[in-house]
């Protein structure tokens, strides 16, 4: 009993990913190439294929192309593929009407190409002519659809020689939206899919892609893409042979990354980016023979031909085989590993040059931009880091950071193992491993210190920019500078100990018991005040003096620090805005309250805790006048004033923004110089 096959069911069960929306067209073009090969074999004639793109009258935008000013493009409704090949001979027609035909199995055909036509298009019609046994031209035409399958429509006329015209109409919207729209983009996808035919001995037919406005010859793309062929290679992986066709592609915006093309049945099935998978192979390479080029490899094998899926979008091969595999088990990882090893041999000299350039790029970046990695750079290089010499700074920073994280995590595990042996009989290599671990920890600590110092350099650079006038001669608001020194409207519970940059003003301010930024005195637990006034920055420090007392009492000595920040070059007109007096008023209110520590413990009554008032403001005429009235003395560099207010028991220092930056830079100069940072 014969089995009946349902075309509706076969089309429904045929897979066509949206990302491969042009695959039905590509299959039609490959069929045309094979038809030309069958007719022109031995004749030396190249044959010709004309692909016509049909568009609707209604325009839509080409969102698939990059750049501004995208031209409106009419949507694609279908394609016509015309060739001068063998035509639909009776044998070809019989094969077409047989699902899963093995007629051209020796060419890698699976008999599913026409199913893909019905998957993406509403209607398919074919007109063809062939030579019969007597050399006469015979024509046929038919329609092909899911509903009515193959409908013959009599003999086709108008043919002077054999050939076929395949019309794919009613391009379904779900696929049309994901397909390239421009003729140039379509031509490039056709070329990349069928490139094997152009690279084989004898070349390919003359293929042209055109619409009403543009025409592209694939032969021109061959000249545009391919610089020259390199040596062909054959590798063997677990008894299976694979052929590698190695190409130098011309360097361009479109050809910018090295690729491995997995092929089957003379078609490209998978494109794989090789960037970083071979040390030194990232983008463009250089050699003395052809200058700058991009590497591409086309991999073919009977093994791949036998295992390509029917839709030709993937292989029925496992990515990797876990555990100990059998001798004849072969995974994509096994094949890829062998291919990458061979590529390393083929590109030996260009890769060595690229690795050296990448090494110089890393050293230059670490020296000038990221000194934190200098202490661990040797270990990072031992791990085999290779980078593209043209890599962006932020991408290089991420790579170095990932390596540093791995070094830190490995050191942690190593330390746990060493400490676990401390109480037992140590192994023979214990001392050696301990020394290596301590060396790594020392390098990591140096890296952390370098990162901290580098961050200080960056903060000072930012502050230097904030205090300068912009192109409109306007200065930054004080809140921008305030936020750089310490986040606004926060206190110690919200800001980590390293979350502020109070060291810019005074290194001692980095150590505080309580810190508040731009909050009312009433909201601060250490003040006990009902005032709603807001000092810019308030900090206290409790210095515990150890005493021998049975009750374990302590004698705290709190210090109060108030910081006021004014806008650069601000010219206050009224005495009521005197920042010196503002600071002294804050100190008085704090002393008058029932003061608690940040944890809520009472501080013994004392009305004279040391107070330090810092005013950050440019020395305008008005500001200089206020400093002189307050009996403050100018600093040696003339960029500030300082003094002690006896009645308020407070040290006062007024610093201009230039003086602030200069002072902080000088205090850190030795660290900056050690790391090679500009000071």
Automatic annotation (TrEMBL):
Molecular function terms in GO for this entry? ATP binding
Query: Which SUPFAM superfamilies does the UniProt record give?
Result: ATPase domain of HSP90 chaperone/DNA topoisomerase II/histidine kinase
Keywords (alphabetical) are: ATP-binding, Nucleotide-binding
Q: Which InterPro entries does the entry link to?
A: HATPase_C_sf (IPR036890)
Protein name per its UniProtKB record: ATP-binding protein
Organism in which the protein naturally occurs = Kribbella speibonae
């Amino acid at each position: 009993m014969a089995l009946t096959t349902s075309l509706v069911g076969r089309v429904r069960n045929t897979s066509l990913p949206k990302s491969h929306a042009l695959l039905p067209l590509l299959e039609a073009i490959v069929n045309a190439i094979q038809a030309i090969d069958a007719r022109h074999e031995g004749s030396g004639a190249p044959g010709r294929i004309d692909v016509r793109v049909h568009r609707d009258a209604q325009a839509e935008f080409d969102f698939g192309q990059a750049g501004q000013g995208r031209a409106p493009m009419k949507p694609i409704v279908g394609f016509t593929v015309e060739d001068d090949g063998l035509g639909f001979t009776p044998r070809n027609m019989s094969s077409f009407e047989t699902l899963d035909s093995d007629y051209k199995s020796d060419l890698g055909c699976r008999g599913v190409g026409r199913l893909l036509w019905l998957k993406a298009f509403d209607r398919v019609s074919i007109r063809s002519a062939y030579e019969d046994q007597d050399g006469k031209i015979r024509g046929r035409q038919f329609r092909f659809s899911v509903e009515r399958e193959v409908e013959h429509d009599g003999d086709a006329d108008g043919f002077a020689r054999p050939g076929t015209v395949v019309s794919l109409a009613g391009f379904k919207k779900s696929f049309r939206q994901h397909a390239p729209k421009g003729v140039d983009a379509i031509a490039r996808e056709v070329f990349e899919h069928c490139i094997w035919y152009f690279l084989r001995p004898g070349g390919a037919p003359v293929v042209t892609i055109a619409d009403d406005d543009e025409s592209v010859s694939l032969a021109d793309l061959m000249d545009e893409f391919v610089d020259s062929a390199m040596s062909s290679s054959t590798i063997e992986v677990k008894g299976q042979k694979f052929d590698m066709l190695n190409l130098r592609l011309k360097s361009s915006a479109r050809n910018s990354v090295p690729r491995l093309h997995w092929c089957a049945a003379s078609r490209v099935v998978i494109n794989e980016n090789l960037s970083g998978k071979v040390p030194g192979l990232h983008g463009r390479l250089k050699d003395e023979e052809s200058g700058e080029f991009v590497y591409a490899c086309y991999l073919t094998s009977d093994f791949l031909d036998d295992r390509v899926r029917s839709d030709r979008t993937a292989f029925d091969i496992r990515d990797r085989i876990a555990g100990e595999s059998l001798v004849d088990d072969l995974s994509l990882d096994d094949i890829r590993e062998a291919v990458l090893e061979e590529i390393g041999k083929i590109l030996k000299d260009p890769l060595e040059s690229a690795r050296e350039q990448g090494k110089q790029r890393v050293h230059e970046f670490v020296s000038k931009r990221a000194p934190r990695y200098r202490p661990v750079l040797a270990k990072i290089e031992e791990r085999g880091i290779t980078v593209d010499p043209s890599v962006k700074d932020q991408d290089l920073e991420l790579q170095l950071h990932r390596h540093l994280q791995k070094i830190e995590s490995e050191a942690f595990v190593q330390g746990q193992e060493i400490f676990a042996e401390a109480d037992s009989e140590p192994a023979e290599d214990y001392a050696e491993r301990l020394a290596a671990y301590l060396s790594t920890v020392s390098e990591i600590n140096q890296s952390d210190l370098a990162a901290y110092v580098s961050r200080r350099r960056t903060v000072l650079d930012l502050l230097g920019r904030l205090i300068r006038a912009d192109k409109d001669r306007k200065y930054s608001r004080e809140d921008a500078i305030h936020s750089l020194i310490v986040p606004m409207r926060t206190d110690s519970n919200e800001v980590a100990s390293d979350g502020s940059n109070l060291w810019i003003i005074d290194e001692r301010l980095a150590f505080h018991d309580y810190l508040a930024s731009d909050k009312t005195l009433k909201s601060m637990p250490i003040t006990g005040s009902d005032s709603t006034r807001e000092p810019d920055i308030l900090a206290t420090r409790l210095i515990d003096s150890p005493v021998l007392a049975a009750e374990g009492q302590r004698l705290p000595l709190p210090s109060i620090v108030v910081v006021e920040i004014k806008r650069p070059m601000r010219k206050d007109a009224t005495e009521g805005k005197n920042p010196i007096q503002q600071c002294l008023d804050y100190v008085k209110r704090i002393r008058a309250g029932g003061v608690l520590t940040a944890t809520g413990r009472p501080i013994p009554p004392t009305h004279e805790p040391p107070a330090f008032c810092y005013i950050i403001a440019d020395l305008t005429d008005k500001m200089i006048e206020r400093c002189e009235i307050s009996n403050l003395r100018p600093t040696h560099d003339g960029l500030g004033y300082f003094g002690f207010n006896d009645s308020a028991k407070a040290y006062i220092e007024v610093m201009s923004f230039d003086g602030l930056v200069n002072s902080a830079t000088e205090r850190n100069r030795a660290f900056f110089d050690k790391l090679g940072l500009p000071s």
